[in-house]
Amino acid sequence: MSERLRPRDLAILAAESPTTPMHNATVEIFDPGESGFDHDRLVQLIADRIAFVPRYRQRLQLVPGRLANPAWVDDEGFDLGYHVRRSALPRPGSMEQLRELVARIASRPLDRSRPLWECYFVEGLEHGHVALLTKSHQILVDGRETVDIGQVLLDTSPDRSTLGHDDDWRPGRPAGPVAAALTAVTDSLESPRTLWMTTRANAESLGRAASASGARVAEVANALAGRGPVHSTPVHRRLSQQRRFVTVHTELSDYRAIREVHGGTVNDVILATIAGGLRGWLMARAESLGGLRTIKAIVPMSVIDDELEPTSLGSQITGHLVHLPIGEPSPVVRLHQVSYDLRAHRDNGRNVSARRLSGIAGFAPTTFHALGARLATAELRRGFHVSVTNVPGPQFPLYADGARMLESYPVHPLLPDHPLAIGVTSYDGGVFYGITTDRDAVPDADVLGQCLLEALDELKDSASDTRPRAPRGRKHAAAKEKT
């Protein structure tokens, strides 16, 4: 029986459009040093490790007449040179130029007739650095059958170990249209689950088509009547086909210092920083929010729960709806409100510690970010404004063929009518924000990046030794009275 797409994967494919390409990306910056790491060495490295992610050599095969869901088949014309590409910035390339290149690459959909991934080796950065941009479709990385290729490319030592270069790999011969149809019928007869999945997928496809037709009719009617589309907030706008990408580099020690003074967790401090950044950005735009005091963020969390979809990473992913208090002027109060909102997740006994997540083999943040994006797509019905994925990584250096990785920024996809998504990765003493926005809806994305830094500075100032602080809680107040 063929390995067929599940209904959730089909829903992701159906949600994809020219304005909402459903792929995740990660941009990493390396210092080659004396390693000699270049494009050719990257091709060799991927050839050595691709056996650990076999789906990266497979493509989708559609079934005539929708007799069954599409299946994964080996790409008989697999060409590693097509997927691993070489690019360059005019020397010395700046971070601003790199971000612009990343935004343009992230704007382009993947070719569905080939394996759904691309990798770019970018030369010419200042200080002799190079960048690696990996881009994988959401249906390719499900955490169960396949992890992101970025998870298997990095080593803990500058010395590269050869793990499994399979020179003898030969693609299986895919079935033709007639054979694919016959196989689909056989699968449906032999497996009630396959028949149920096919029936469900076809019904959902008809429903989506009807919904899209209704939306187009309403759009035409509004246009004829002279009424434009209604968009209530700056974080809910119609998308274009182009993106902007902003990076923010901060230090993990700052978040830990704030946590030590005000309590909570590093994750609380990061979300409070995002809340403060969004507040400053919206105030800089001078836009009315219509009384909106909070922004609802869907925040994927790692839990241990047998009732959720299993993954190969040792935990499951669930979505927690966090109300970011953008209407609160005090950075400390914002932090306490965010911490209180997340306390229920921490107290249920299912949450997975950051230390355990950062200890997963390989560079797991790339896979967790992909799973977070999948979850946000599935949770659209909950009516959130922005998706925020924060993933802890290892606090020691990693290497790609001897080149040390310095920074890692997630590039999240945008969901329909959601012009903003934020990903955060902590690694080797740094906390790295990747902000993806729609190019037309959020032309001032760089202002949001600056506002994040200012929000963090506010929290750092509130935790400084020279700033007087009121005692927190009854016990602290009573102790002060006795003294």
Automatic annotation (TrEMBL):
Key word Hydrolase present: no
Keywords annotated in UniProt: Acyltransferase, Glycerol metabolism, Lipid biosynthesis, Lipid metabolism, Transferase
Pathway assigned in UniProt: Glycerolipid metabolism; triacylglycerol biosynthesis; Lipid metabolism
Catalytic activity: an acyl-CoA + a 1,2-diacyl-sn-glycerol = a triacyl-sn-glycerol + CoA
EC number per UniProt: 2.3.1.20
Pfam families according to UniProt: WS_DGAT_C, WS_DGAT_cat
Domain (O-acyltransferase WSD1 C-terminal): residue spans on this chain: 314-460
Presence of keyword rRNA processing: no
Domain of life: Bacteria
UniProt-annotated stretches for the region Disordered: 460-483
Domain O-acyltransferase WSD1-like N-terminal: 5-270
InterPro entries cross-referenced by the UniProt entry: Acyl_transf_WS/DGAT (IPR014292), O-acyltransferase_WSD1-like (IPR045034), O-acyltransferase_WSD1_C (IPR009721), O-acyltransferase_WSD1_N (IPR004255)
Cross-referenced PANTHER family: O-ACYLTRANSFERASE (WSD1-LIKE) FAMILY PROTEIN, WAX ESTER SYNTHASE_DIACYLGLYCEROL ACYLTRANSFERASE 4-RELATED
Homology family: Belongs to the long-chain O-acyltransferase family.
Protein name per UniProt: Diacylglycerol O-acyltransferase
Species assigned in the record: Nocardioides cavernae
